[in-house]
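Protein chain data
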Amino acid sequence: MNTTPPVWLVGAGPGDPELLTLKAARLLAQAEIVMVDDLVNPEILQHCPQARLIRVGKRGGCRSTPQAFINRLMLRYGRQGKRLVRLKGGDPCIFGRAGEEAQWLRDRGVEAGIVNGITAGLAGATQCDIPLTLRGVSRGVTLVTAHTQDDSELNWAALAAGGTTLVVYMGVARLQQIQQGLLAGGMPANMPVAMIENASSPLQRQLACQLSQLCTAAIAFKLKSPAVLVIGEVVNAAALAHSYSETSQLAG
């Protein structure tokens, strides 16, 4: 593989600009063009003051730049030999389309490199003092997205029986399906859940509840995207600032 491909698919992390990797910062400093997603913290763009910025919004539930247009732009600049960074929120390989974008470019003769970023599920949990794995409690982590291209349902019964910490991305619009699917699949109604909004940013909010309370608590909390759910006994290890009860007054 070419060690210096013209196109780099780079993860910016979930929000905190100090979580950017050194490699990502170096590539941004060298970039001539940066195609930046909506969820990237604007402070990160200080690393590429000389680059031409092309904003290609990609946010769940909102109007987005068509993927075909993004692909064509990357291909054009890649063929021209421009130093291009496609800057994505979180990690580009975790629900960030890096795999399909890289393959699409390679099929057309343009090499693409990938730089990992810290994913929101990990950073958000850490910010809440939730260890996604914990000896004697959880021996694994399962990352899933509740938003599928064909609107098909996940195998909630298998996820409920898996025994791992479950981290759900892009689930705000499908909370009822998540709750019903896991309960029907045998997950205990009192399984702890953490809702984490705007992970690792100054706007981060979090709330703990039980699985049976998920939809009611989310409405009371006014949960909005971007947010992740952490579902599992590891949530009990955290000292969350706010926990939901039907008689308590929720804080933002």
Notes: Residues 7-115 form a domain with the Cobalt-precorrin-4 Transmethylase; domain 1 fold (CATH 3.40.1010.10).
